[in-house]
Amino acid sequence: MKLYDCSTAPSPRRVRIFAAEKGLELDLVQVDLANGEQYGEHFRVINPDCVVPVLELDDGTRISEVLAICYYLDEIKPEPSLFGTTPLERAETLMWNAKVEQQGLMSMMDAFRNVAKGLKGHALPGPDEFEQIPALAERGRRRVEIFFRRLDDRLSTTDFIAGGRYSIADISGLVLIDFAKWVKIPIPNDAGNLQRWYKAITARPSAKA
Amino acid sequence: MKLYDCSTAPSPRRVRIFAAEKGLELDLVQVDLANGEQYGEHFRVINPDCVVPVLELDDGTRISEVLAICYYLDEIKPEPSLFGTTPLERAETLMWNAKVEQQGLMSMMDAFRNVAKGLKGHALPGPDEFEQIPALAERGRRRVEIFFRRLDDRLSTTDFIAGGRYSIADISGLVLIDFAKWVKIPIPNDAGNLQRWYKAITARPSAKA
């Protein structure tokens, strides 16, 4: 299987970490996002939404969207499951992953894309041009800070974001925090539960993927 | 099972339609969003994110987030599956549902919440106050229009959004279109595939849920 990837982007990193945890090897194909390769005719055929990651199966079938790719990988190699092994565990995992995506990663994207100098006219990923909205960048930073407090609360009662086991929600959380760190939104010093969790997650070999 | 619901809101409608398609009866508990019941102490215990829907199981366990709730319902009553019956079908369904959520429903939320008079200071769902950003409302409208074109293209080759079978992605699409219609973003007259699909989906009894 081939993964259209970009080594510096947060979304494909989620899939790389997921594959590393599963012990799955993917052939990584770098897409040069910084130079606009995703908007070129060649990549538009691979994904008309002009974003990575995209998983390409050996028969040529392509799957985009991080959650869909990860769920597929979990199904073809069920052990260890990163979505949970019972209906309730899967519900909790999907629930927490959705919260990290919507409240965390989307906010982070708003915070970054609406001020980055290289993204003028590309405030959103995808083929259509959208001007940056500075107020949205500010709102994004505030939302990330609020969400860090929520995660800290959550992790006061559980070892991992979705409960007692490592899951895709932890991968989404790790990528969120590393992205936030890069734009100088650190984990607050007094968020001890989140600090403890981050240390444990980054100690796993998959965090280097 | 109990569903904390609001009969006029788009997100819980997705779960109501899903349950209707599965033939599952849920005890609906109305939460008065218009009068701020979701911010009250009582509901904050049910969901600290202050949003509906929330599914409450008979043992008191609560699940929030539409995707998590629907996946859970699909697992406890697998026939007919609204996520697909093979790993590839499930991947395609999750992929298309994510596109409808991110490109369609999120845009629609931006378009509505950033101008609605009753939502000043509540431009985002949840307990934290955020001022409206008028430019974000405009961007949201434009994104919905663009996404309608994408859906029309997609439906030129398939009967349903995720492929050859009705799925949660169609439910998400239906709720998007009805919400957009309400704020006067109609399906374009020349989007014949989307019109055909919408007619078929609204003819199903579940569309009244």
Brief summary:
2 copies of one chain form a homodimer. Chain A has 209 residues and is of the alpha+beta class.
Produce the secondary structure layout.
Two copies of one chain form a homodimer.
Chain A: E1 2-5, H1 10-22, E2 27-30, H2 41-46, E3 54-56, E4 62-64, H3 66-76, H4 87-113, H5 134-154, H6 168-182, H7 192-202
Parallel strand pairs in A: 1-2
Antiparallel strand pairs in A: 1-3, 3-4
Polypeptide structure, described:
- The first copy, chain A, is an alpha+beta fold.
- Chain A has seven helices and four strands, in the order E-H-E-H-E-E-H-H-H-H-H.
- Chain A has helices spanning 10-22, 41-46, 66-76, 87-113, 134-154, 168-182, 192-202, and strands at 2-5, 27-30, 54-56, 62-64.
- Chain A has a four-stranded mixed sheet with strand order 2-1-3-4, covered by helices on one side.
- In chain A, helix 1 links the parallel strand 1 and strand 2 (27-30).
- In chain A, helix 4 packs antiparallel against helix 5 (134-154).
- The longest helix of chain A is centred in the middle third of the chain and has 27 residues, at 87-113.
- The radius of gyration of chain A is 17 Å and the shape is globular.
- The two termini of chain A are 17 Å apart.
- At the A-B interface, helix 3, helix 4 and helix 5 of A face helix 3, helix 4 and helix 5 of B.
